[in-house]
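ugh ok so i messed up the first submission bc i forgot one of the chains. this is the corrected input, ALL of the components this time, i swear. 822 residues overall. if the numbers dont match what u have on ur side tell me asap before i send this to the collaborators (the ones from the other lab, u know who)
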Amino acid sequence: MLIIYCFLFYTIRTATARDTLNLGQSIRDGETLVSANESFELGFFSPGKSKSRYLGIWYKKIGNGTVIWVANRDAPLSDRSGALNISSQGNGTLILLNSTNGIVWSSNASRTRNPVAVLLESGNLVVKDGKDIDPDNFLWQSFDYPSHILLAGMKLGVNLVTGLNRFISSWKSTDDPAQDDYVYGIDPSGVPQAVFRKGSTIRYRAGSWNGLHWTGMPQLQPNPVYTFEYVSNENEVFYRFNLIKSSVPSMMVMNPLGDPQRLTWMEQTQKWAPFVPFSGLILDQCDNYALCGAYAVCNMNSNSAKCECLEGFVPKSPSEWDLLDKSDGCVRRTQLDCEHGDGFLKRESVKLPDTRFSLVDNKISLLECKELCSKNCSCTAYANADVRGGGSGCLLWFHDLIDMKELSESGQDLFVRMAASELDDIERKKPKKKKKVAIVITSVLLVTGVILLGGFVYLWKRRHRKQGKTDGSSKLDYNDRGNREEEMELPIFDWMAIANATENFSDKNKLGEGGFGPVYKGVLIEGQEIAVKRLSKSSGQGMEEFENEVLLIAKLQHRNLVKLIGCCTQRDERMLIYEYLPNKSLNDFIFDVTRSKFLDWSKRCQIIGGIARGLLYLHQDSRLRIIHRDLKASNVLLDNEMNPKISDFGMARAFGIDQTEANTNRVVGTYGYMPPEYAIDGLFSVKSDVFSFGVLVLEIVCGKRNRGFYHADHHHNLLGHAWRLWIEERPVELINKSLGGSYSLSEVLRCIQVGLLCVQQRPEDRPNMSSVVLMLSGERSLPQPKQPGFFTERNPPESGSSSSKRSLLSTNEITISLIEGR
Ligand SMILES: *[C@@H]1O[C@H](CO)[C@@H](O)[C@H](O)[C@H]1NC(C)=O
Ligand SMILES: *[C@@H]1O[C@H](CO)[C@@H](O)[C@H](O)[C@H]1NC(C)=O
Ligand SMILES: *[C@@H]1O[C@H](CO)[C@@H](O)[C@H](O)[C@H]1NC(C)=O
Ligand SMILES: *[C@@H]1O[C@H](CO)[C@@H](O)[C@H](O)[C@H]1NC(C)=O
Ligand SMILES: *[C@@H]1O[C@H](CO)[C@@H](O)[C@H](O)[C@H]1NC(C)=O
Ligand SMILES: *[C@@H]1O[C@H](CO)[C@@H](O)[C@H](O)[C@H]1NC(C)=O
Ligand SMILES: *[C@@H]1O[C@H](CO)[C@@H](O)[C@H](O)[C@H]1NC(C)=O
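and heres the new structure output, hopefully the right one now
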């Protein structure tokens, strides 16, 4: 949940807004300081429902006065008689006085005879010597005492000389800015790490810096909104970000719920919004500190956390390990024997363990690191300190290895100390080359056996099925359509559990409405987030057919398809439960002026490729040959790494009871993405999806919707526009301005050409998805496209059938589903 601090103020503007407070002047309640370009304002305010008065700084132009800093957060003023003075006793301290001139809050002494306080455009309130020629020589600055927000330019970290530690901490509530328990900052002990705590308990550890990002926060990536840096030397350790374009404000907020996240100002909606994929710190269960205990790696497997001991280690208390409490962790199978020499075993792709008791040496190589570690009997592991340029530097651990997480692509290699005998054992267990033949033969025999057995069981089950209904177990067995070996179980959710998770299908939780019914967001009791598709009851399909259909869909697994995690068929309802992807859909990115900047060309290319592979899988590689029929930008969801995931697949098949492979009288789809032969004649085939894919590709390149596309020169839609520019040999003009100049022209042109090939009028001219994938990879030469279908949308083609109830005039993006008049 998103809680931002928005408050109303009774700010009485002084006649001339000023940004400087001089000696002998004061700011009373009602007066303010305003930064030079009016971005920030300093004055008194009351948060939320509170009556207390606080001195603070807030955004002036945007965000309804989002407060970014509070001076007297732990010492509220009870009335409106507060005043901010610069201490006249010649020491330049800022003092906040109450009605009886008692000092409620003060800045640290600045020791100057000519103090001035200035509110800078960055939101920093500084005290400096008015006679100092250096404008950046601050004697005191509010940036050194952050409240709950980290702004661009602020340092998060420790000054090792003065001991000043700058961290952000939550408010007690939206009505009370007093410092609460949630704190995010840098822990300088051992090798410095970014840590999020509640009180003294660590909740999440982003880890040490590996040259590119925190080891446990690979989502911190170069992006179009801000740059970031990490500095660590003998004087200080800090992290800082800076805005690339000061026109897109962005900040890190610790809200009272203890949910640290990055918010960025959205011009369109006039709101602060989390900017995935770079917004959240805590992405999944495995990010909970030390969830698996020592010497264990946490692995996010199908939405739930799994703990697994490092090789050579076993669960410390096996009985608890099987239950959920794994915090006991793992212990060595074989004790170390330092005298007689230990070795090291490499564990790949992990978030490196806690470095609070570690040492680092940035100058030595991995080989020297190994040497160093093996010489010291209390050294438990080593790794590269910096991953840049193939890796360098040396990190050493001397304690239990705690809080590791599997990070498939962005993790690091960790070398764990092992007894030599254990290493031998592990080596011996690995399959040797000589044994390979034997293993292959055994496997062949085994598989044959299983198939025979499977066939037998299948026949047996089939015979028995005819006699009775399935038992009332809560799992569905996949044993209907063939191989027993492939039996799978799809969780069936209880209706009440889903109703609870979605707060009784409340509108608040509604994510959207598709052609098959509304979709809700929900949170299961265990905390897992889900998306629930509640299918409308109009489908005449029987429950049993539905379940079978769902079982088939559940078997579809591809990294570019959204994962189905269960279904619910109680109370005459059909619901499908999917993994929830917080990142919204492609629709929210490509057509949004601000967010589209997050999608540079290489990301877009990757997304186009991903959608193509997902679709190819549906069309050809999966056993079902599913035609999606409603591919569109809002049905392509993006995960944290901006990988596209097609949603809503299989629904077409699951729902058309009276359709054939070639014709349907139930047209489901979205105008703007439907090919002519489908919208008009209800004819669909894989080539209808190819058409929709082509539209999507052009939309991604162009950043504009096909439907509702407007151009001053003509009445064509996006397809017509693209076609026109193509034949006039000016396709470059199609390219989205958000891309700037950073793209490979040949790649973009190839995509445009593929897009146009996919939207050709005649289905038989359109390539199939396997050709598309090859074309996109540049492995196939491209033919010249012919005229696209539906390129003038302003003259919707008539269907010719007077009984048709179709209307091509609906302009919104929602999926429609029309039953033709019979
Ligand atoms: C604060 O400043 C005002 C003038 O603006 C002055 O009258 C008052 O005495 C000052 N208070 C203290 C404690 O310096
Ligand atoms: C204020 O805005 C003007 C014009 O946009 C700019 O030239 C100037 O540098 C800005 N000043 C500060 C302090 O940001
Ligand atoms: C912003 O403040 C105005 C009143 O000043 C209020 O009417 C409006 O609802 C506020 N908007 C938001 C998004 O809080
Ligand atoms: C600065 O002045 C204030 C009162 O104006 C006083 O309370 C404080 O002790 C002084 N600080 C130093 C370091 O002299
Ligand atoms: C003003 O502040 C002083 C020192 O914090 C305190 O002793 C005094 O009671 C306060 N006066 C009022 C009216 O709050
Ligand atoms: C500055 O003030 C803070 C409290 O506001 C205090 O903890 C710290 O010791 C002070 N530092 C110096 C150098 O006076
Ligand atoms: C091993 O390293 C630890 C941590 O640096 C150190 O305290 C200890 O003295 C070292 N032991 C030996 C034998 O060098």
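quick check: The radius of gyration is 31 Å. that seems consistent at least. The first helix runs from residue 318 to 322.
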